[in-house]
């Protein structure tokens, strides 16, 4: 589904990613861990197409198509979803209207008619119930006055509604207490299927107790320096990152 080959990318002429290689197949969950400043969020942003980052070398191939030159909305229409570490507030736009617009824009890009209102309402009810979201929440302005947990739950609600093929969750666990973490993780697990793939970027192994990854990758200095199974995450929790740095010397 996603194949990243020898990817170099950065800001203002300075590379942050320095030769990333990663392959994600449908049905898989990959976790990317690493110290602060190692390039995790940059990788998420570059795959999603954030325009301030410049790709200087390499390829991002999604479903056998090089998407390096596509705009963020084109990538979104093809089924790539990025949840933000710090979701922004949009006063005056309700959660429901935001979702309706996003879904219908994607349908328009696929030459489909808008989703019928009755179908949209049914889907909103189902997904809100799945994520234990109060219906009143859906009429509030997007992220305005939301707690950290509400913002993250709302991001997973958007993911549930948009049904992306590739979801990238950038530190969805930051700022969450254990109850909110469980609700978010439960929502992600219910959305896992053989037809989609999920990339989870996290600092902490605790999230991976709830969203169990097939593979864990360690990103350092803009490169993936070690890969393994979920056991690698436990080892990182116990030993930190210094032992990996020593292995690289």
Please tell me about this protein's structure.
- One of its GO terms (molecular function) is ATP hydrolysis activity.
- It comes from Aequorivita xiaoshiensis.
- This is Fe-S cluster assembly ATPase SufC.
- Residues 2-246 form the ABC transporter domain.
- The relative contact order is 0.18.
- The chain contains nine helices and twelve strands.
- A six-stranded mixed β-sheet has the order 6-9-10-3-11-12, with helices on both faces. Strands 2-1-4-5 form a four-stranded antiparallel β-sheet, with helices on one face.
- Strand 11 (215-220) and strand 12 (223-228) form a beta hairpin.
- The chain is α/β, with parallel strands linked by helices.
- The protein has helices at residues 40-48, 72-77, 95-109, 117-130, 148-162, 178-191, 205-210, 230-239, 242-248, and strands at 2-11, 14-24, 29-33, 54-62, 65-66, 80-83, 90-94, 141-142, 166-170, 197-201, 215-220, 223-228.
- The longest helix is centred in the middle third of the chain and has 15 residues, at 95-109.
- The chain has one domain (28-48, 77-248): P-loop containing nucleotide triphosphate hydrolases (Rossmann fold, 3-Layer(aba) Sandwich).
- Helices cover 39% and strands 28% of the residues.
- The model has no long low-confidence stretch (mean pLDDT 90).
